[in-house]
Design brief:
CATH architecture of the largest domain: Orthogonal Bundle
Radius of gyration: 23 Å
Order of helices and strands: HHEEHHHH
Oligomer: single chain
Number of strands: 2
Helix content: 55-70%
CATH topology of the largest domain: Multidrug-efflux Transporter Regulator, Chain: A, Domain 2
Number of domains: 2
Distance between the termini: 42 Å
Structural class: mainly alpha
Shape: elongated
CATH class of the largest domain: Mainly Alpha
Strand order of the largest sheet: 1-2
């Protein structure tokens, strides 16, 4: 059995985050000692590692919860896991596209000034005036 601190150390998930996941129902309610300290078993460690990895892949909590609900499922029910993975890939591609547009705009801004500092700097002006940007680039 692991304490919450040991669980945190083994998974890299901060203690308040573990408690948050418990409150959201993503983690099972842990056993408690006579002193009311949480104690976690191997399956809780595995679950937290699963959550951590899913979050590292950018999945929102609702998708993590959906994947957890599929534990032990078989057959067509598992198509939901495939849908979640495909949707996350699509969201990631959209984000990458936005980040690439942002990169282009920042490159344009960074070279907008002639380097002479005897006038209003075009870089500072560009940061202050969104209307001179070449396109949408908020992430």
């Amino acid at each position: 059995m692991l304490s919450i601190g040991q669980l945190s150390a083994r998974t890299g998930v901060k203690v308040p985050t573990i408690r948050f996941y418990e409150q959201k129902g993503l983690m099972p309610v842990p056993d408690r000692t006579a002193g009311n300290q949480r104690r976690y078993c191997q399956s809780a460690l595995n679950r937290l590692a699963f959550i951590r990895h899913a979050r590292d892949l950018g999945l929102p909590l609702k998708d993590v919860a959906a994947l957890i609900s599929l534990e032990g499922a078989t057959g067509p029910a598992l198509e939901r896991a495939h849908d979640i993975a495909r949707n996350q890939k699509s969201r990631l591609r959209a984000r990458i596209s936005k980040l690439q547009a942002l990169e282009c705009e920042l490159g344009r801004i960074a070279t907008a000034c002639d380097g002479q500092h005897d006038h209003v700097c075009a870089v500072l002006h560009a940061f202050g005036d969104h209307t001179i940007c070449e396109g949408e680039h908020h992430v």
